[in-house]
Specification:
Layout (H helix, E strand, L loop, with lengths): L8 E3 L5 E3 L8 H10 L4 H8 L3 H9 L6 H12 L15
Antiparallel strand pairs: 1-2
């Protein structure tokens, strides 16, 4: 089920509709909602998106702006109901 906060299409003036392809920004609440809708935890989403867990936490707290490619990828995955194939965590080397 697609969360209400992150819709795949947005109704604009004169009855026209914009798709996820036109959405270029996302709030931290929408990011958290999109991650939940895809069935991931924040750490798994960070691995899938190629960022550190710390960066993901900063995006979720609203400390950093969410990159446009991340917004587009998550929007596309939700619109097409694609489940992510998340890589396993790498073992830490000290």
């Amino acid at each position: 089920m697609v969360p209400l906060e992150f819709q795949t299409s947005i109704t604009v003036q004169k009855g026209k509709s914009m798709s996820w392809q036109h959405t270029r920004s996302m709030t931290s609440e929408q990011l958290a909602s999109a991650i939940r809708a895809l069935g991931m935890k924040p750490a798994a989403a960070a691995r899938y998106l190629g960022m550190s867990a710390r960066s993901m936490r900063r995006h979720l707290r609203g400390e950093r702006e969410i990159p446009v490619p991340v917004v587009l990828l998550l929007g596309c995955m939700i619109a097409h109901r694609t489940k992510p194939l998340v890589p396993r965590p790498r073992p830490r080397s000290y």
